[in-house]
Amino acid sequence: MTVSSDVRALPVLQGRSLVEGNARGSLISSDTGLSFWGGIDPFSGEVIDRHHPLSGKIITGHILAIPSGRGSCTGSSVMLELILNGHAPAGLILAEPDEILTLGVLVAEVVFGKSFPVVCIGAEAFAALPESGTEVCMTGKKIRFGNAVPAEIPQSSQADTSPGPLAGSMKLELRDHEMLDGFHGKAAQVAMQLILRIAALQGATELIDVSQAHIDGCIYTGPASLRFAQQLVAWGGKVRVPTTLNSISVDKRKWRELGVDAGLGEPASALGDAYLNMGARVSFTCAPYLLDTKPARGDQIVWAESNAVVYANSVLGARTLKYPDYLDICIALTGRAPLTGSHCDNGRLATLHIEVQKPDTADDAFYPLLGYHTGLLAATEIPVITGLENAAPDSDDLKAFGAAFATTSAAPMFHIAGVTPEAPDAATALGGKAAKRHRVVSADDLARSWRELDSSEETAVQLISLGNPHFSLTECAKLAGLCAQRKKDPQTALVVTMGRDVNEQARAAGYISTLEAFGALIVTDTCWCMLGEPVIPQKTSTLMTNSGKYAHYAPGLVGRKVHFGSLADCVQAACSGQWPRSLPDWLSA
């Protein structure tokens, strides 16, 4: 990136254009990354992440400047909704390239002919940006501020649907050229165009075969998500690799029974059907690593859904990028993905070393808490955590850690020395090099993050939210053990979400009958990031969860206050209808 001196003195800079275009508007800027899913209301443009410095701001028509995205892969879908319904920013300035946000703009451009400029300027120039409210003009690679903004800017040219200049220099196989030329249908052609546009952004020079896909784009974010999927179906799209589907936005089999409005239930079900029509498997889970089709170490795959990506890379040792919604189905339709990032050996190495000590008496809330805090420290870097070599976290602990980590980080994976498969020790995870950054996590650090997650001042709890990500069979067993011979408070709901496969196994094992006798409601196919009223009782002002991910997202997504705690804490709160806001003994000590 080149900056024409200090941007405050000479307010013109030049960066790398990720999406071409011209725009003008006042600046809204933050030095904190932002997940568009759970962070932006797609129908108003309001920042709804209540932990973010821009909370409450409206981005519509402004030039938005953030260092990068973070969190959910569904940010691309929210971006598409914003563009098609007229609530998008006028332009986007990034410190680092962000594939999730950029992909949403590219889909709008290639499929629907609408777009806005996205420019990456580098960390140094980003740090020197003027204050929010400054007038900004974006033309191609150039960004002008204040007095340097011209009175008029040229109109943006017609949307570019070409695969970009990299297509001519990439090592494409005959089948890639055939798809690009339309010999395998319009859906595969558009999919290949989008793949090559992202490959150009990533700097990839070749494509690889993938063995399976997991699609996150089946989440209904609004009419745009359904339009995109149905357009691919109309173009004859069929997946070329075994493909599973993420949680959709409703329990497909009983949304009417649950009282969900048809205005959501019908399009959300139709969206699921569109992906099934393209050949995907009926799975509907945000935890595909719990299925019998989970990949093995070294498998090249394309998974979207942030927690699934992090688990696949970190715990299973499979290889996937943190793929944006819509790029996931594009790769499934072609079977081809850019060879870059965490698909490669050097893209999986840690650069950040984090030291932590697990308190001797810590319960299962430790791992989602640590994951949340680690994600905040890591931002876009892959960390290696030391100090847990003898802690023996199980798969549920690693699931909870990874989901919370993926909420606050944009990194595709983590390493825990002595625990995860590519980190027998810290030196191996770092590739034999010194860490670029080193942090020690103290009890005080974790206490601060606990207070962010456990944010409600109320002691009454009206809802216990479990299963974000989807419950495993072992979690069902643990919960059934805690609930056996007990009854929940009649004024407090307890709702557990899980995939269909786990639900069948748990029912056969007798766990579901125990939970239902306790008073729990079991919901399949969907997950907490998509659930609202009436599954969330209207009277609910405070909910409690053991999920670091949902504790972060719930205040913005459903407007409720949150208590955070262990699984046992959640059951106790369900029985009493009360939970005092306080640090656990193992953390306060």
List the helices and strands and how they pair.
Elements: E1 2-3, E2 12-14, E3 16-19, E4 22-29, E5 63-66, H1 75-85, E6 91-94, H2 99-112, E7 118-120, H3 123-127, E8 135-139, E9 142-145, H4 174-180, H5 186-202, E10 207-209, E11 213-215, H6 223-234, E12 243-245, H7 262-277, E13 302-303, H8 306-316, H9 327-334, E14 336-338, E15 352-355, H10 366-378, E16 383-386, H11 395-408, E17 415-416, H12 426-429, E18 437-440, H13 443-453, E19 463-466, H14 473-483, E20 493-498, H15 500-508, H16 511-518, E21 521-524, E22 542-545, H17 548-558, E23 561-564, H18 567-576, H19 585-588
Parallel strand pairs: 4-5, 5-6, 6-7, 11-12, 11-13, 15-16, 15-18, 16-17, 19-20, 19-22, 20-21, 22-23
Antiparallel strand pairs: 1-2, 2-9, 3-7, 4-8, 8-9, 10-14
Helix pairs in contact: 1-2, 2-5, 4-5, 5-9, 6-7, 8-11, 10-11, 10-13, 11-17, 14-16
